[in-house]
Amino acid sequence: MRTDDLIKALDADARSTAMPLGSAWWLAAGAATVIAAVVFWLTIGPRADIATAMHTMRFLAKFVFTTALAVSAFALIRALSTPSASTGKAAAWMIAAPLLVIIAVVLELLSVPAADWGTRLVGSNMVICLTSIPLIGIGPLAVFIAVLRYGAPTRPVLAGTVAGLLAGGLAATFYAAHCFDDSPLFVATWYTIAIAVLAALGALGARIFVRW
Amino acid sequence: MTGKDEAELSRLMRAAIAGDERAYADFLHRTAALVRGFVRRKIVHGGVDPEDVVQETLLAIHVKRHTWRQDLAVLPWVYAIARFKLIDAFRRRGRRVEIEIDEIAETFAEPEAETVSERDINRALDGLPPAQRSVVSSVSVEGRSIGETAAKFGISETAVRVSLHRGLAAIAKRFGAKQFGRAKQFKRE
After folding, report:
1. Do B111 and B132 fall within a single domain?
2. Is A115 exposed, middle or buried (0-12, 13-18, 19+ CB in 10 A)?
3. B19: domain CATH number?
4. Residue B186: is its pLDDT beyond 70?
5. pLDDT of A194 over the 80 cut
6. Residue A19 falls within a domain, yes or no?
7. Domain count of chain A?
8. In a shared domain, residues B179 and B147
9. Which domain holds residue A204?
10. Which of B78, B101, B117 is a domain's end point?
11. What separation in angstroms does the CA of A159 have from each of A12, A165, A174, B89?
12. A88 chain-B contacts, CB cut-off 8 A
């Protein structure tokens, strides 16, 4: 087939009724949040003392970390799925969540006696954390991988990794409402590992499913 | 000249998405010529047929045109897709050819005309279900209109449009899938 012939065929199929990618991302964000919320309520649900916990800095700080991750990952993945979109600024914002966690860890180390560091880091919910975050995040991750397929990421594996971070940030936001371990030492360790699992799954998922 | 190209091509693409076939034909012919120039300049050692990459790029532009944001420039978007498809073509043939990452959209290619030879797209076309294949062939190689194709096969114009749309999407997908199969082969060797 000559290129001119190909153009005749493309031409006859000119009109596009496909949803713009930007809208698809917002739709996906909504669907992913609903999925995460449903899984969260069906499995673990919020902690019983959430009303009092809301008045503590450490509890609230967890939501700052996780939403910072989710919001920055959302901006970056939108850029990564669009050819020629500039990713520099969005990529730079990805430093925000880790930076906030590092600051909180330093403050925690300064305010808590060294003898308590170990117990605060280990906490009592390590296993629940490591299973719940991937469990809540896997559905949203599938949604994001589907949108990556719909989009045109020129670096699919990187985009898949960011999809995992986005799913991780979203899942961790819900999980944080359940968990009693509010210490930044716990968050920095176990949340990070659980989110890294989703990031790795995202990279793998993109490698397998995102081809265009 | 580049600025004028950009404004004109953006306008044509917007009209095309709204359903203007003449604008789309114009857009695709001009884009094909630019991409051909770009790809030929990048393929200096042979091994990859530039026209295959041009056709893959046009198909990708077509099935991914919802990823172009209408308030952004269209040429950088076109070249980003062309570069992705070019790197893919090299990888598929097990070649590690370095492409200068920095100079993509900035150095705009000169338009060039096509040369004829056996094409990857024919293999992709042959793999389609018979109904889709005959519709795509009729509209492309045989040069019939949607209406003429509908009359020839005794089906509605809507059915022709649906088959064409699905057939083109399937061809575009086949280009992507084939790359994966061959990449695995190369690892084993």
Report:
1. no
2. exposed
3. 1.10.1740.10
4. no
5. yes
6. no
7. 1
8. yes
9. 25-209
10. B117
11. 33, 10, 23, 21
12. none
- Is B24:B61 a contact under the CB 8 Å cutoff? no
- B180 with B100, same domain: the answer is no
Task: Note which residues in 20-59 of chain B have CB less than 8 A from chain A.
Answer: 20-21, 23-25, 28-29, 32, 51, 54-55, 58-59
User: Does residue A120 surpass a pLDDT of 70?
Assistant: yes
Question: Is A10 touching B (CB cutoff 8 A)?
Answer: yes
Q: Where are the alpha helices (DSSP H) in A13-125?
A: 21-43, 50-53, 57-80, 88-93, 96-111, 114-122
Final residue of a structural domain among B69, B94, B117:
B117
Q: Do residues B60 and B148 both lie within one domain?
A: no
What are B4-23's pLDDT values in tens digits? 889 999 999 999 999 899 99
A4-37 pLDDT, tens per residue? 999 999 999 988 889 999 999 999 999 999 999 9
A75-99 pLDDT, tens per residue?
A: 999 999 999 999 999 999 999 999 9
pLDDT bin (cut points 50, 70, 90) of residue B105 is: very low
CB interface of B with A, residues 117-156, below 8 Å: 119, 121-122, 125, 136, 139-141, 143, 145-146
CB contact under 8 Å between A16 and B119, yes or no, is no
A7 and B25 within 8 Å at the Cβ level: the answer is yes
Structural domain containing residue B6: 1-117
Q: What ipTM score was computed for the predicted complex, to two decimals?
A: 0.90
Contact with chain A for residue B90, Cβ under 8 A: no
Is any Cβ of chain B less than 8 angstroms from the Cβ of A5?
yes
Q: Which residue of A has its CA nearest to B83?
A: A154
Encoded tokens for B12: 């044509």
Residues B57-98 pLDDT 10s: 999 999 999 999 988 899 999 999 999 999 988 887 775 555
In a shared domain, residues B60 and B123 = no
Whether A198 is in a domain gets the answer yes
Tell me if B56 sits within 8 A of B86, measured CB to CB: no
A140 neighbors A174 (Cβ within 8 angstroms): no
| Calpha distance A26→B39 (Å, rounded) | 35
Does A42 reside within a domain? yes
How many whole angstroms separate alpha carbon A130 and alpha carbon B57? 43
